Amino acid sequence: MAQRTTARHARNSSAAVIVFTAALAATACTGGSDKSGQPPPSAPPASTAPAGPGLSFTAAASSPVGDNPRAISAADFDGDGVLDLVTANLGPGDASVLFGDGQGGFREVTTIPAGPAALRNVTADVNADGFMDVVTINVSDETVTVQRGDGKGGFTEPTVHATGDGPSGVTAADFDGDGNLDLATANYDGDNVSVLLADGAGGFAAPVHLPAGNGPADIVAADFNGDGRIDLASGNHHSDDASILLGNGDGTFAPAVSAAAGNGPHGIVAADFDGDGNVDLATPDYEGDTVSVLLGDGEGGFAAPLVMPAGDGPTGIAAADLDGDGDIDLASANFESDDVSVFAGDGRGGFAAAIAVPAADGPIKIVAGDLDGDGKADLAVANSHDDNVVVLRNTTAGR
Question: Which superkingdom is the protein from (predicted)?
Fold first, then answer.
């Protein structure tokens, strides 16, 4: 595997890419950080009984995108009621927009500008015009670009805003309660997160940097303590934890508090996995080949992680009700084993053992959504070494 992984990393021709992928490259190519490394934190065993119908997926469509896609998000960009997809393409520093055909495939793929070494993206209506926009972080020049959608599938030229050192994740939410969506980035090299408050005129204020853990690889926004204010959580690759920053509701945040995660979290997602009304977290743990679930206590704290075996080198994660039983399930994109691990949730914070679904070469990020209009959440995977997106259609019976 070492030889194959080395060849993969050789494809990252931009030197700027190495800033963010240094830990991953050192692990796979030089043996600097053994993936078998430290054992995952102790945790109660995962559920062994499926929570709903047996999950089943099949590859339904594949589409070429730009060189080395490193992120994927979903939204309806052209107002036809069908979910579309967008990737951030590291090689050319652009984005590919895949317009859905409503049957799990794509009727058109277009390219829009992003920024140098486009690494991650998120979709949100940042200017409150009713149309979905694309926000992309660019690791080469440490910026975030905002491309505003026109509701017809077109986008404005991107506006560019400074972030922190080595941005590696981005999220959008209203942090100061003014009704405008703000931005926050996880900064892998700065060991911090940056908050960019919207100015109400379509722009953003200069970033405010807040200390986090060691090597924040991704970020998510949610209300973790039930006070009606938006909080932040980063998944920290090197410190094997999540940094929880509770929001004050005015755009400022309390100092970060650490919550233990798995070995080398490379992403993070928020959802209620145990049905108690509190927001929980889950991380894909690249070093440990696991997915970790951190159950929230509703006050901003989190229990010791439930650590579950996944595929080899999980780097992306999605949470959704995939089997239609009302409970949230999980899916991880596994960078090294070229597959997706799907975990059926039992609604009590436990999960069945993962099923493996083949993807393509180098699946790095994943998104869930109904792409074929049958009422079931499907999965779409950005494959960084095949330069494509693969749709895994949900064929679970009994829905």
Answer: Bacteria
Torsion angle of C-alpha atoms 193, 90, 149, 372, degrees rounded to 10: -110
Question: 26 is written with which tokens?
Answer: 């050192």
Residues 6 or more apart whose CB falls under 8 angstroms from that of 252 comprise none
Parent domain of 301:
60-394
Query: How far apart are the two ends of the chain, measured CA to CA in Å?
Result: 39
Asked whether residue 51 is assigned to any structural domain, the reply reads: no
The count of domains in the chain is: 1
* pTM for this entry: 0.90
pLDDT band of residue 219 (cuts 50, 70, 90) is very high
Residue 44 pLDDT > 80, yes or no? no
- Helix H segments across the chain? 2-10, 15-25
Tell me the Ramachandran region of residue 226: left when phi exceeds 0, alpha when psi lies from -120 to 50, beta otherwise: left
Tens of pLDDT, residue by residue over 176-197, are 999 999 999 999 999 999 999 9
Is the pLDDT score of 9 beyond 60? no
In a domain, 378, yes or no: yes
139-158: buried (b, 16+ CB within 10 Å) or exposed (e) per residue?
Answer: bbebbbbbbbbeeebebeeb
Helix and strand totals (H; E) in the chain: 2, 28
Token digits of residue 348: 């009590």
Residue type, 371: L
Asked, for residue 251, whether it belongs to a domain, the answer is yes
Q: Is residue 42's pLDDT more than 60? A: no
What CATH number should be reported for the domain holding residue 189?
2.130.10.10
* Residue-level pLDDT at 399: 53
Q: What angle do CA 235, 317, 259 make, to 5 degrees?
A: 30
* pLDDT above 90 (res 280): yes
